[in-house]
TrEMBL record:
Organism field: Dissostichus mawsoni (Antarctic cod)
Name under which the protein is recorded: Fibronectin type-III domain-containing protein
Gene3D superfamilies: Immunoglobulins
Boundaries of every Fibronectin type-III domain copy: 23-132
Species lineage: Eukaryota, Metazoa, Chordata, Craniata, Vertebrata
Residue ranges of the TM segments: none
Cited Pfam families: fn3
Length: 199
């Protein structure tokens, strides 16, 4: 009986010299830079540290997925059937439009792709959409109002006239109630109700 020995040392050395592209790491959603306004959400993210260091392994595209939910615990819900996809994003942000107003949560996640493959998805983030939103405009505000990006302040008594007839006119011009929803950067809303019982 004949015995043969095969030497694969040259092939082994060749395989060890091969350079395989790494799979991109999961990006991180930059929650403070995300904006929820009206029925749109702009999602921003950062590539994971170390990705894109070489020309061959650089990230070429991102895939964003989102789904609507009424539960906060849906971040870890199983199954991919209900995810809606926005593929082939070249930058590090994308806008999801046409959402329902006043949705309790929209869950988003993103992954990076290079020439080799797509990486893992980022940790999912839940974002609420506002019932409606507006922005305070300091340039057109009344002189007695101090307007900042998310608040309006004013003196409780204001500059009231000392004459009884003018005081009566001022009281008649005060609206019964003012209410507005202010969209804050951290995906929350604040109801602003001024105290008008200061006559």
């Amino acid at each position: 009986m004949s015995q043969f020995t095969v030497d694969f040392s040259a092939e082994r050395a060749g395989l060890q010299r091969l350079h395989f592209l790494p799979v991109p790491k999961a990006p991180e959603i930059d929650a403070p830079s995300c904006v929820a306004r009206d029925n749109n959400i702009t999602v921003a993210w950062r590539p994971a540290g170390g990705d894109g260091d070489t020309d061959d392994g650089r990230i070429e595209r991102y895939d964003l997925e989102y789904r609507k939910s009424n539960r906060e615990d849906s971040l870890r819900a199983a199954g991919d059937a209900c995810w809606e996809k926005i593929p082939d994003i070249e930058g590090t942000q994308a806008t999801i439009s046409g959402l329902k107003f006043d949705s309790r949560f929209v869950v988003v996640r993103v992954r990076a792709r290079n020439k080799a493959a797509a990486g893992d998805f980022s940790e999912p983030v839940a974002v609420p959409t506002a019932a409606f939103s507006f922005v305070f405009d300091g340039s057109s505000a009344h002189a007695e109002l101090r307007v900042q990006s998310d608040t309006v302040t004013w003196a409780a008594g204001g500059q009231r006239s000392r004459r009884p007839a003018e005081r009566q006119r001022e009281q008649e011009q005060v609206p019964l109630s003012i209410m507005g929803v202010v969209v804050l950067p951290a995906f929350s809303s604040q109801v602003v109700e001024p105290d008008l019982n200061c006559h």
